[in-house]
Amino acid sequence: MEAEDWVPGPPLPAGGEGPGADSQPAAGVPGTAGGPLLAAAAAEVLALDDEEDDLEVFSKDTSLAEVNSFSPSMPISPSSMTNQYKLEDGPELRDLFITVDDPESHITAIETFITYRVVTKTSRGEFDSSEYEVRRRYQDFLWLKSKLEEAHPTLIIPPLPEKFIIKGMVERFSDEFIETRRKALHKFLNRIADHPTLTFNEDFKIFLTAQAWELSSHKKQGPGLLSRMGQTVRAVASSVRGAVKNRPGMFTEMNDYMETFSQKINVLDKIAHRIYKEERDYFNEMKEYGPIHTLWSASEEDLADSLKGIANCIDRCCKATEKRMAGLSENLLPILHEYILYSEILMGVLKRRDQIQGELDSKVDALANKKTEKDLLSEEIGKLEDKVERANNALRADWDRWKQNMQCDMRSTFTHVAENNLHYYEE
Amino acid sequence: RAVESQIEGQCAPVDSLWRRYSEFELLRNYLSVTYPHIVVPPLPEKRADFVWHKLSADNMDPDFVERRRMGLENFLLRVASHPVLCQDKIFHSFLTQEGGWKEMVNETGFQLKADSRLKALNATFRVKNPDKRFTELKHYSDELQSVISHLLRVRARVADRLYGVYKVHGNYGRVFSEWSAIEKEMGDGLQSAGHHMDVYAASIDDILEEEEHYADQLKEYLFYAEALRAVCRKHELMQYDLEMAAQDLTSKKQQCEELATGTVRTFSLKGMTSKLFGQETPEQREAKIKVLEEQIQEGEEQLKSKNLEGRDFVKSAWADIERFKEQKNHDLKEALISYAVMQISMCKKGIQVWTNAKECFSKM
């Protein structure tokens, strides 16, 4: 029996140090230690409640608050065995509120970087105080993410904004870039906070609460580079072994789904970008269109007013188009991007799951015990993936709705404008 | 290249015959020369101009041919409704006489007038006392031409872009439909939303076709501006003629006076040579004076008639110009209104499509 130091969800006192001083390289196998701990965790207050999703994203996207598609009628996952979740009472389940704002740049001798202020408000007991304010830089977020991945290789960790945009459209430190990144970081933390398991992760807590120096010293306690390398090697090895053998049908389905989904999302992203570009070109041409009419009105007498009216309207159309473009770039594009990342993450998760299974299979002679735990794990994963998929869908519905709202608004603006026009020179 | 066009005779008994574009051109040339003071309605363009990329610039393209046909019909209607032009015999026979019409036109000998006019119009000359009104009018027609052609160009580009925006949305349709295949709960919503995207993308074709009609209306006035300008030029020409004639007369009179009185008032070669080589005999002088007096007589009559001509021209030209102005204001106003109506309907369609799509999305 391998005594794997599995980092449990809930903050059991033993786990206070993070994944680990004594973690062993075989990260693939959760080990018996993890199993019961996890079950115990499950028994704790892990909310699987509908309303929690109302507050899933504590951000400016107020429209998302309407999401409620986490109906209890979810496909039955075999997790019923472990499903001893207690429903939290009351709609105010959110006991952890996080915001990311106030980017500031710091210049040192070696480098320049940006830090963001992370404000946390909580009513949870395990937090020493109810409010925290710390500053974190992008690297810190990366660290958090990798810790979470280590700790929960088959849970779906939300995506982080990328290091840099490859398309080179945006300067590394431009305001636009920083703002986009800030929003994404904000979302990232909030998603973690909403995740029934991840939210109790110790590293997460430390991330939210520790002062800068505390954090750096804590970071250093992570598993050494060597051990991490060992993990990777193992991972590669196991995938080479064709870990797909005993994959339960459900996961094959998921895999197929993810592949197609990922394809489609990428295409959608391309389309959306293309639309944005076309709209921008349209806008540029329109800008010239209005003034011509004004120019013309200068040579006319009777027609002058009508022409000026048209020029006016065209200009308003221009503004409307601008708004539409802004809507696209603020809402649709980032979300599409996020889901592209998500699809990659999910593929990764599925792979890891396969690895785990592969490892398991290769020891199948040994411990029926283990197998049970593996099942537990699988089910857990399965359930979670379902959950995220539904989150997926819900979000989709919302952004689409929002987008349509936006488009509709644009159209109405156009119409109003045109109607005014009409009245204008029907006089 | 010409396009065949069928006309229905209006003020003649039953008639429809075939005319080529070149015959229309001939008719118009004839009218322009015969009625220089009238702003003659323009013909639709020979080649497709101001096209946006989807619209073909091919003259044989059926859409273009159709629009040209409408333009030619419009031309005839305009001529027929013009108080002066509609009475022209050549115009009548254009509508009624199948064969031999061309010959008839040529027989009027207008071609000669046309050629000389053309030469004169293209020459540059300075008029000493330009009529201010005509000068202003000329400026106006220049401005109108430039502004309308600019507008048409930009409109073509805008149409191009708008087309792009709509069409790309069509891709959504395809992807949504593919995506819906793998989704369970979202499937139906996606599928129907995709359908709406397709509708949206397809709607732009009709919209832009209607806009072409608006563009054609503007184009007519673009060419009208040219006709207006021509009238101004003709007036200038007349004026110049007049001034030249007057000048000529004055100098002849002067010459006469000099010969008669023997004084040389202004420096002239004659004066010099006569000083140098001696004066002419009285007989020669008398002869000369007689000739000159005749010429002066002629000249004065000519001047009178030219003046009269000029005044007539100005009067009738201004009458027609006023008529034209009113027509232009009315037509353009209507065109602008219909453009606005088009925009409104386009927006309404957009609202409808997106409302539907929104519904689909919210059911996902």
TrEMBL record, chain A:
Q: Where is the PX domain?
A: 94-215
For the region Disordered, give the residue spans. 1-34
- Where along the sequence do coiled-coil regions lie? 367-394
Task: Please indicate if the UniProt record lists Transport as a keyword.
Answer: yes
Which GO terms are recorded in the biological process aspect for this UniProt protein?
autophagy of mitochondrion; endocytic recycling; piecemeal microautophagy of the nucleus; protein transport; reticulophagy
Q: Which UniProt keywords apply?
A: Coiled coil, Protein transport, Transport
Q: Where is the composition biased (Low complexity)?
A: 25-34
Keyword Transport listed: yes
The record's listing under Pfam families reads: PX
Superkingdom, natural source: Eukaryota
Q: Which SMART domains match?
A: PX
MF (Gene Ontology): phosphatidylinositol binding
GO CC annotations?
early endosome; phagophore assembly site
The UniProt family comment states:
Belongs to the sorting nexin family.
Name of the protein in its database record: SNX7 protein
Q: Which organism is it from?
A: Smithornis capensis
Gene assigned in the entry: Snx7
From TrEMBL, chain B:
All copies of the PX domain together span 1-101
Which residue positions does the secretion signal occupy?
none
Entry keyword Protein transport:
yes
The UniProt entry, under CDD domains, shows:
BAR_SNX4 (cd07622)
Keyword set for this entry? Protein transport, Transport
- InterPro entries found in the cross-reference section: AH/BAR_dom_sf, PX_dom, PX_dom_sf, SNX4, SNX4_BAR
Q: Which SUPFAM superfamilies match?
A: PX domain
Which processes are annotated in GO (biological process)? positive regulation of autophagosome assembly; protein transport
Gene Ontology cellular-component annotations:
early endosome membrane; plasma membrane; SNARE complex
Listed GO MF terms: phosphatidylinositol-3-phosphate binding
Q: Which family does it belong to?
A: Belongs to the sorting nexin family.
Do you know which PANTHER family this protein is assigned to?
SORTING NEXIN-4 (PTHR46596:SF1)
Output this protein's name. Answer: SNX4 protein
Gene name? Snx4
